[in-house]
């Protein structure tokens, strides 16, 4: 699994003109990508990593200050643009595999005590955020 974690002061996801998820920070806006060999165990590892990642102000984590997370599925994290001008998506897991694993990350975060908002899997989402720092980190598990 791959995640892009961005430290934010606010973030939201809008689908069809309606806000489906929003947080006010400090917190993390997290894009999550799934590849073919990902498992529920990897989802659990990613959730723990995101919950305890010390990238908030003063080197604190979400768990330290009960900061919220906005988790958004993002298959394009496994896009490959090394050849030509059009990316390929061969490394991205299909929706039937990816959707339950992204949901597992969210469920595991909530089980750890996190406040989590989400996007809408497979929807045309409009994501807006204020990146604090800016601070963006790629996390692979």
Describe the structure.
The chain is of the alpha/beta class and 141 residues long. The protein has a single domain (2-140), classed as D-tyrosyl-tRNA(Tyr) deacylase (D-tyrosyl-trna(Tyr) Deacylase, Chain: A, 3-Layer(bba) Sandwich). It has helices spanning 40-52, 62-65, 95-111; strands at 2-15, 18-33, 69-73, 116-118, 125-140. The chain has a 5-stranded mixed beta sheet with strand order 4-3-2-1-5. Strand 1 (2-15) and strand 2 (18-33) form a beta hairpin. Helix 1 (40-52) packs across helix 3 (95-111). The longest helix is centred in the C-terminal third of the chain and has 17 residues, at 95-111.
**Reading side by side through the largest sheet, how are the strands ordered?**
4-3-2-1-5
Give the number of helices.
3
CATH A-level architecture: 3-Layer(bba) Sandwich
CATH level-four homologous superfamily name: D-tyrosyl-tRNA(Tyr) deacylase
Summing up helix and strand content along with how strands pair, one would put the structural category as: alpha/beta
CATH class: Alpha Beta
Q: Give the uncertain stretches in residue-range form.
A: none
Helix-strand sequence: EEHHEHEE
- Based on Cα principal axes, name the global outline: globular
How many β strands by DSSP?
A: 5
In whole angstroms, how far apart are the ends?
5 Å
Mean pLDDT: 97
Q: How is the biggest beta sheet arranged?
A: 5 strands, mixed
Number of domains: 1
What fraction, in percent, of the residue positions are helical?
A: 10-25%
What portion of residues belong to β-strands?
A: 35-45%
Rg from C-alpha positions? 14 Å
Indicate the CATH topology: D-tyrosyl-trna(Tyr) Deacylase, Chain: A
């Amino acid at each position: 699994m791959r995640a892009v974690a961005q430290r934010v002061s606010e973030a939201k996801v809008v689908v069809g003109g309606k806000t489906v998820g929003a947080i006010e920070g400090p917190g993390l806006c997290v894009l999550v990508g799934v590849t073919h060999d990902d498992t529920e165990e990897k989802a659990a590892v990613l959730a723990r990593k995101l919950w305890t990642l010390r990238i908030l102000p003063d080197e604190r984590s979400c768990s330290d200050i009960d900061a919220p997370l906005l988790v958004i599925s993002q298959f394009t994290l496994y896009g490959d643009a090394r050849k030509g001008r059009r990316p390929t998506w061969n490394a991205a897991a299909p929706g039937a595999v990816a959707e339950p694993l992204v949901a597992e990350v969210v469920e595991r975060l909530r089980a750890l005590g996190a406040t989590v908002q989400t996007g809408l899997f497979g929807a045309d989402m409009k994501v807006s955020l204020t990146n604090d720092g800016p601070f963006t980190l790629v996390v692979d598990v």
